Structures are given as structure tokens and as C-alpha cells.
Amino acid sequence: MPTTPxxxxxxxxxxxxxxxxxxxxxxxxxxxxxxxxxxxxxxxxQPLLYQVATGILSPGEIAPSTREVLARQHNVEVILGDVTHxxxxxxxxxxxxxEVEHRYAYDYLIVAxxxxxxxxxxxxxxxxxxxxxSIDDALELRxxxxxxxxxxxxxxxxxDQEDLERLTTFVVVGAGPTGVEMAGQLVDLSxxxxxxxxxxxxxxxxxxxxxxxxxxVLTSFDPHLQRKTKEQLEELGVDVRLGAMVVDVNxxxxxxxxxxxxxxxxxxxxxxxxxxxxxxxxxxxxxxxxGLEVDRTGRVPVQxxxxxxxxxxxxxxxxxxxxxxxxGVAQVAIQTxxxxxxxxxxxxxxxxxxxxxxxxxxxxxxxxxxxxxIAEIGxxxxxxxxxxxxxxxxxxxxxxxxxxxxxxLLHWTITFLGRDRAERVITEQQVFARLAMQESGxxxxxxxxxxVAPRSGASPEQTQG
Amino acid sequence: MPTTPxxxxxxxxxxxxxxxxxxxxxxxxxxxxxxxxxxxxxxxxQPLLYQVATGILSPGEIAPSTREVLARQHNVEVILGDVTHxxxxxxxxxxxxxEVEHRYAYDYLIVAxxxxxxxxxxxxxxxxxxxxxSIDDALELRxxxxxxxxxxxxxxxxxDQEDLERLTTFVVVGAGPTGVEMAGQLVDLSxxxxxxxxxxxxxxxxxxxxxxxxxxVLTSFDPHLQRKTKEQLEELGVDVRLGAMVVDVNxxxxxxxxxxxxxxxxxxxxxxxxxxxxxxxxxxxxxxxxGLEVDRTGRVPVQxxxxxxxxxxxxxxxxxxxxxxxxGVAQVAIQTxxxxxxxxxxxxxxxxxxxxxxxxxxxxxxxxxxxxxIAEIGxxxxxxxxxxxxxxxxxxxxxxxxxxxxxxLLHWTITFLGRDRAERVITEQQVFARLAMQESGxxxxxxxxxxVAPRSGASPEQTQG
Lengths: 465, 465
Known about the structure:
The structure is a homodimer. Chain A is of the alpha/beta class. Chain A has helices at 18-26, 49-53, 59-62, 66-69, 135-158, 161-167, 177-193, 223-236, 282-290, 330-348, 384-400, 405-417, 432-448, and strands at 10-14, 33-38, 76-80, 82-87, 92-97, 100-105, 108-111, 115-117, 169-173, 207-211, 239-241, 245-250, 253-257, 263-267, 270-273, 277-279, 307-308, 311-316, 364-369, 372-377, 380-383, 450-451.
């Protein structure tokens, strides 16, 4: 008879994204004690974040409570905490919960802390051009986007064409999947959802500009699909500008250098930053302790089995690793975390570990707008409606696992068939009014100030102050 | 042939709540130019706000865009602005949009600016005990409620019973309909939704305390229903304390005087303020200009036809008026605003105005928890499931007007039949972590700090700092 060990092996998982959640689930039934430490209380289904930012879905529909998802898995506990340091030598993790640091000891560690937005050394751009990485980002952008149209209505009532244009010009920086989806959604929002909602402006005349420093959109896809996507975006009315390197962003607009190093300025109150990611700083923290160097985007050059040299107990997965040119996509996070979990399970069961992670490329897809998408599965390339439909099925299928499926499906159906969006709330917490507008807003509206003419020409009186 | 006037009469409506929205809709088809000025971009269906605060519904489901609701009514424009002053003599309204003031001229004015939370001169309570008046309030409370359980899990892991109790004690101040609903929902949340989600605490052991300075709950209802409600709340496990006057609120708890002026302290991190309202300060602004005085809660003693003396062009409606003991409920706002709109229409059509507003009491209802409610329609009193079902039908019927019905119905069905809640997201913008906890949190967690023991007894190492 085997003897029961005094304590079970302790597995700590850092992060509640795809990597963290799938690692925990892969260890269901394994004789370990798992502590999943997450910085948020929810698991974020990031591929649909742009739908929250544009008012289609509510946060709850794409961000189920991590605790709830794992409630029935009895070998895991979920702790709210921001992991600030991993002590490789002492095998402990330091996590911050409400400014108080706690230390957690592990026997095995799976680091799945993901990646954040990168402004390439220009973090000051962030306040003017929010990223697209968290629910907070998405709600902030939602407030700014719908808020810009509200202010445009005021500018429109003044007949101030310059302000109106600045308020109804939307710039998306970065033409990866998120940037492409945002650009497509912004066109759909202005051309379809808001049509008829305003009296002084024509939302269908809003401009959407998509900038990328590279020479193609969706560079991770096949060149044929890249061209198709660019064509489809331009058909929709998106102004796609490639070879455009953003060099300055402020409240009223941004500036970029084109391929010939010519400087251009775009006047636009609402900017979205979807360019560049940078791996969690925990990557550098780990690398330093084991004598490695992270790459330009902070990723750790893990060994073929996803561990660190000399530390078979530490696995790094997902967006945090630099291995075989693996892309920063959900599938990589899922497969690497499952691989890590399997090795832990094998070792506990006395089996030999597998020497190397092997990525199975299930294909790649992106959606451009309602009914338009692209997909590549091995040699097969799909575009247009079939690709969009595949995208829908795959994403719905995923969400099914998290119980939000019925109402989410309904929101989608309503949105795709009708013109309405269910989630248009701007909260006062969202600082669109204060932050995005602070500089530009006062200048814009100072000039415009004073009078908002009722439509039928009745003349308003002078403003105070 | 009648001659067309050069400009149409200009009607300004202040507020996008029940009063403002129904006034605008009642003027559909009337030959006027309406400007609805709202401080938010949404119409808030306030009776369901507590469902957002407790994670059942998303903001979009109870707060449709005002602009979208009125999109097809061509004689109305919607302007985002906070009305700060009404100039009765010059017939203009001053509204603030992003720190810039604009003046709008009117021929008729309907003031439907509603009421805010009142802390009875203790505004410093607000940061520790948010009110229940806006979407922001509800999201803030949602973050604090779910956040308290997250922190309790950390305290539970420490075995710190005192902190755990403080974090799982919820106090609702004010036993009107909102307070009763919140208390019922908090019990349901802890006893049903969160059951099984935690490892170190038992959420079903959470305490919910309902305080009111009066000697009954739901004082606007029949005494029999008051007693029934109190009984049902106590059956659910709510600790109802009447004659309890709150005298101090801080981050860690609150203090109250009982009927015998004895001071009591409750240790509770999460407090909800549902006691007392105070009418919009625009009421006092108006009253002063026409030689009236507002009452204790800031309400304007309007004339029988809802106008101000000497100013037949100014109507004040809804929660802002002191007339015939009318309660501050949606039906009063709806009926008074419709009456005001009708009088404007009659005058424009050359008919005589009606001399006095007459309230038609359709009855009163409240919900206590899932499947329990109370209702009174004239002499008929209903309790329990039938009352709850009536409440559900009435509220659904109302929401039908705003297109959120299908997904809302689904969320409700899922929530009432199952144990899950779809909207549990805590955003970083929500300051539960910083504000509610700032003082108490550090103290609580400082003591608790250091170690969070993995469940199976493996001992963690000492904390840094």
C-alpha cells in the first residue's frame, strides 16, 4: 500500500487569464493543493474585450468570476493578489493584497501572468490613448467613444466644423487583430448604431483611421489574407495608413512619421492604443535570478519544456515566453499551461516528464466587422462571411464553458441583426469627461462655448463667465 | 388658414429620469421644439438599481441611452449637461457640459431633476456608505460587496475571526423599499450565489443588518404589510433593528443610538446608505426667485397645477415637489410630468389649462427577495409569491418599452431559478480596494498580514516588510 504523504505538493499558479485558468483546470483530480493568485477577481476572455469597449456585451458576459468557474474543483483555492516578486531560491511568491504583502510557498510554480500594453517607452501616451487589455480599459474606452459623440452634438449645435471633426475622428493605433476589430466596430457603431440618434451631427460621417508602423495589417496572417483584410476595411470606410510610426499623442490628436519620415498630424479626441505588448515584469524578475535575459518585449527564453534552467519546478507559459516564435495568442497560453500541468501530474504519479512542448497550431482567425472575417487553418484560407461565422462558432463554443452563453448569444443576435447595442452606459467614474477632454475639451469648448442654438434657429443668449 | 409661427415654442426639460423622459414622450407630435438636458447620457430605471449593485443585471439593462429611446421622436434633442441655474426672469437655463457653461432659452420649462441621497448633514458618511442613486453608486457597491468576500477569504485563511466577521457583516441603513430590497438581496447573494465559491470562509454565515430610525420598515405601506415584511426579512436571516439612529460611520463600521439613546457599534466594512433623499438644489434655486421656501428635504411647494406662482411657464415635477403628501415614487414622477406636458399642449392648441393635478394611485409594491414581495392596490393587500410575481410582471412590462426585455428576462430567469449571477465584475476603477478599505483595510490586514496558509497546513514563510 502506498503511504499518503503528510502534505500534498503545493502548486501556485500566477494569473487568472487563459494560462492560469487552464492550468488549474488541467490539474483537476490531481493530488495537489493549488493556489491560484490573480490580480483581478475575474477571468477575462480577452478576444471579446473590444465588444465591451464598443457597447455590445457587458463585462460579466466576457469576464466570469474566476472563483465561480473553479468553485466545484476542490483542490484549488483562489486568492486576490498582485504577485510582485518570485523568490526562486526559497520557492516563495510574494503577493500584494490591498497594499499588504503576503508570502506563499510552493513546490511547483506555473507563471501565467500574461502581457500588458506597451507604449514603447512613451507611457505618457496612455492617458490620451487607452490600451485594450483589461475590463477597465474597455469601459474607459466605451465612455470615451460614446462621450465623444455627445460632445460632438454640442459642437454641432454651434456649427463649429473643426471641433465636430476632431470629436468624430477616431484613431486606432496598431493593426493587429484587436486594432482591426476595433476599427471595424467603430465604423459599425457610427454608421449603424448611432444613425438617427443625433440632431446636430451625422454620426455616419465619423472618420475611423487605422495606423500601423508595419507595411501590412494582421502581420501574423498569410499575405493574401492581409491584403483581403485591408481591402475589406477600406470598403467599410476605414482609412488604413501603413508605415505610420506614432511619435506623439496628446489630448487633441496625434502625430506620426510616414515611410518617408514625413511628419503628419491627425486631430482626434478619441484614440485607442492596440499596438505592442510587453510581458509581465515577473518575467524579468525570474530571468535575472536564473541568469537569463528577457527579450525586447520582456519575454523569458524558457527551455523546451517551459521550465527555467536548473528549476524544473518553475514553468513559465503563455504570452510571457520567447520560444520557437510562438505567437501571443490564447491557444499558446492554453496549450503551454496544459503542458506544464501535465508534467507536474506525471512527476507526482512517478512517470517521466516529456522533454519538450510541442505546439499544435489550430489555425488563426480574426473578425473585421459584422459578417466579415478571415481564417486560416493550415493551408486553408477563408474570408468573408464563412470566416466570420467560424469565428462566431469558435468564440461561442468557448464561452459555453462559462455559462454566459444564452444571454451572450442573445446580445450577439440582437446586435448583429438589429442596429442597437445594449451596453452604452457612460459612468461618472469614467474619466472621459475629465481626462480625455481636460486639455482639448476646454479649448475646444471654450471657443465653442456660450451658445447652443436650439435647432429651429431660436437664438440663445450669451453665456455667463 | 392658420399662419405658421416663425419659430415653434421652445420647451426645455431638465432631467432624464422618469419625469424628464415621460414629459418628452408626452409631447411627441406636439408642434414644439424640445431640448432635454440630462446630467447622464442614460435614463435610469431606478427601481432595479439594487439588482445592478448585487450582480444580477448589467448597467445597460436598466439604463438605456436617453438619446436612443428618443431617437425616433423628431421634435426632441438630447443634450448632455448639468443644469446649474435657472434664470426665471430671463427664461433661460444654464447648463454645464465639461466645465463649460451654456445658456438655453425656453418658452416652457419642465424641471424634473429628481432627488439625490441625503446624509442628513453628514456628507462625510458617503465615502464609507455609498448611496443607491446612480449607476456609479451601484457599481461601486457591487465592487465593495464582492470585494469584501474576497478579503474575507484572505482573513479566513489567517484564521482571524474578528476580521472575517467585520468583512462579512453588511449593514443597510434605511428600511424603505431600496433598503429592504438590498437587505434581501445580500442574504440571497451570500446564502445562495456564493455558496461553495470559497475555501476559508462560509459565505452563508454572512450577517446582514438592516437599520432604520423609524419604528417600522416600509413606512409608506399599510401597517399589516410592514409587519409582514419585517417577519419575512427576519425569516430570511436579516437582523432588523428599528429605532436605530446612525450617528457615526467610518471605514470599519458604524455607530447608532437606539430608542433609549444607548450607543451601539457594529463592526462592518461594507455599508449601504438607503436612508433619506434630498431634492435637487434646483428646487431651492427656483423657490428663492419666486419668493417660496423649500421644505426640509428641498422640495418646492408648487401650485396645484405644478407651476410656480406668477410663472405658468415653469412646471416642477416628480421628486422635487411638496404637494398633497405625494410620495417620491416613479408613478408620481410619470403622472406629474405627463400633466405638465398636457398643459403645454393644451395652451399651444388654444385650449384652457386644467387647474389642478390629480394623482391616481395605482398602488404600491416592493420585493423582499426571490419569490417574496408585498403589494397594495387600494384596499387589496397581497404578500408572498403572488406579490412578488406582480412586481416582476409590472417591472418587466415597463422595461419592455426599452428593448432590453429579452436578455433581461433571461438574466432574471437564470438568477431566480439558478444560483448564479452574471455580473460579478470588480473593476480597478472601483475604489473598494482603496477607499472602503484604506483605513480599515490596512489595520485589518496588517494584523492579519504576513501569512496566508495554504489549506492543507503547509506553513508559509514570513512576510517581508
